[in-house]
Amino acid sequence: MKSLIRFLLVVGFLWVLELPAATVKHHIVFLAGESLYGSETTLPIYADRLKKKYGYQCTTLVRTDKDKFPNLEVLSKADLVVFYMRRMTLSEDQLGQVKRYIESGRPVIGLRTASHAMQNWLAFDKLVLGGNYQGHHKNELIGKTSIVPEMNSHPILNKVVSGFKMGGSLYKNSPLAKQATALITGKIKGHPEEPVAWTHTYKGNRTFYTSLGHQDDFENINFINLINNAIEWCLDDSDKSESTLEKIVEKYGIESGEPFRIGVALFEKMVKEKNIQLLDVRTPSEFKASHISDTKWIDWFSPSFKNKIKELDKEKIYLVYCAGGVRSARACEMMSDMGFKYTVDLAPGFSGWKAAGKAIEK
Predict the structure, then answer these.
(1) Backbone angles phi, psi at 75, to 5 degrees
(2) Nearest CA-CA partner of 184 in 197, 168, 165, 175
(3) For the chain, what is the HEC assignment?
(4) CA torsion angle for 128, 129, 132, 138 (degrees, to 10)?
(5) Do 60 and 30 form a contact (C-beta atoms < 8 A)?
(6) pLDDT of residue 247
(7) Does domain 245-355 have CATH number 3.10.180.10?
């Protein structure tokens, strides 16, 4: 009880000092699903501070039993999800809700045990977070942090001081995914340095992970600043600069020569990018009835379809759609076989696009 009171007092003091008021209305969902580090206590308190000081709309879901969250459907309305789970085996329905959020391209933050969050989706660590969890050092071996020198000016590290003591054991996460960028490392004497905090991207989202998150970390102003900054960075959509083809490919994880099949939310996000070409492969009557703005049209059923495709620039990124996703999938396969580097297929088709209420042109 005394430690909880001390935690509340310290965290409250740190927030008064460091977190300015704001009027942001983004909706952040926190998932507390572990039993080792007190996330069922720390996350609700942290979320409440965010709500009061930043103006965020915050929802904290604490698991009701070992493998279940209440009201997980709220993920469909979230702008950011903070995962603090450990080895949960979610039901097919709840895992589907998590995956739909991830596949939409919205941002993700993972804290500590999020690297091994779901037993029935172990790939979450490498695929989404960009990590490589290999266990941890002994609990009594507490490491110290170091900011990666070339990352000093990164916005996530604002007011984060190198050399602070970690609250819990050092996780082993080397090597990270090639698209991950380490911001902070940790070191225990006599052992290799390990990444402690990094950024990553999956299907165009912004992802941040840190192996910090022990209850003692929530009493450390450096950790509070780190998470505050990470939230702001993940939700930052102010960068309106034109993306190069290379940046778009890296941002969304598009593989050269491999058709990329995605849903409506991510397709809409990519449509807004520069240096892409929309391609409608439906019939003339379908296209005339309605289509997505700025779309090039080539009828899949036309005898001249392949010849017209040959005239296109094979180096561009093509966002391809038909009515229901069948013709577009075949078109993407054909284009890949013809040497087109980047083809993206709208899986639910134009029907799914319209059903989602997205913009069309007649």
Answers:
(1) -60, -30
(2) 197
(3) CHHHHHHHHHHHHHHHHHCCCCCCCCEEEEEEECCCCCHHHHHHHHHHHHHHHHCCEEEEEECCECCECCCHHHHHHCCEEEEEECCECCCHHHHHHHHHHHHCCCCEEEEHHHHHCECCCCCHHHHHHCCCCCCECCCCCEEEEEECHHHCCCHHHCCCCCCCEEEEECECCCCCCCCCEEEEEEECCCCCCEEEEEEECCCCCCEEEECCCCHHHHHCHHHHHHHHHHHHHHHCCCCCCCCCHHHHHHHHCCCCCCCEEECHHHHHHHHCCCCEEEEECCCHHHHHHCECCCEEECCCCCCCHHHHHHCCCCCCEEEEECCCCHHHHHHHHHHHHCCCCEEEEECCHHHHHHHCCCCCEC
(4) -140
(5) yes
(6) 82
(7) no
Residue recorded with tokens 């003091």: 13
- Say what the pLDDT of residue 250 is: 82
Whole-number mean pLDDT of the chain?
Answer: 90
Architecture of the domain whose range is 2-235: 3-Layer(aba) Sandwich (3.40)
Tell me the pairing of strands 260-262 and 276-280.
Answer: unpaired
Instruction: Give the pLDDT confidence of 173-194 residue by residue, as tens digits.
Output: 999 998 899 999 999 988 999 9
pTM higher than 0.90 for the full model?
A: no
The two tokens of residue 313 are 């620039």
- Distance (Å, whole) CA 42 – CA 37: 9
Q: What is the pLDDT of residues 75-92, one digit of tens each?
A: 999 999 999 999 999 999
Between CA 81 and CA 96, with CA 106 as vertex, the angle to 5 degrees is 70
> Tell me, what amino acid is at 188?
I
Res 116 pLDDT > 90: yes
Q: For tokens 């003591």, name the residue.
A: 165
* Structure tokens, 71: 């009201």
Which residues, other chains included, contact 145 with Cβ-Cβ below 8 Å and sequence gap of 6+? 162, 163, 164, 165, 166, 184, 185, 186, 196, 222
**What ranges do the domains of the chain cover?**
2-235, 245-355
